[in-house]
Amino acid sequence: MTEGHAAVLEKDFVPPKEHETEFSHVKPGDTEFKGSGLRDFFLYRDLGVAKATKGQVIAHLVKANMPPTTGTGWHKHIADFQIVIMTKGWARFMYEDKETLVEAGDVVHQRPGITHYLFDYSPDMEYLEIVGPADFGTVEAPAAAEVPAPTPWK
What we know:
By secondary structure, the protein is mostly beta strands. Helices cover 9% and strands 36% of the residues. It has two helices and ten strands, in the order αβαβββββββββ.
């Protein structure tokens, strides 16, 4: 990082008040993958960020639980910020009318309100999802394009 860049960051950075967030450190054995998330064909592992940020942000790991059949359907999230970091495997999304393959190591910033559809994924798919606020909404959206068929698991 250049000295000028660091100076801008220090000058513009306003940390949250101490009471607005808490320190959090979650180890792999501290929380389990559970089926109580947005989609029943995925498992979700809470990473403690929603509690630590008092609802400002949620971070969870999401992994495949069942083969893709119908996918997520066309939808959008009511959120200020959302990123997906694919940690294992792959998933195919439709972002509006564009098919997008997201593979391990890829990072996707889903701009607020983008219409999308996760329709295919590998058996080992796992991703980190970070969304703000933690209690973001999800609403159905009109189809933006035809969705390809998922790849059958063997």
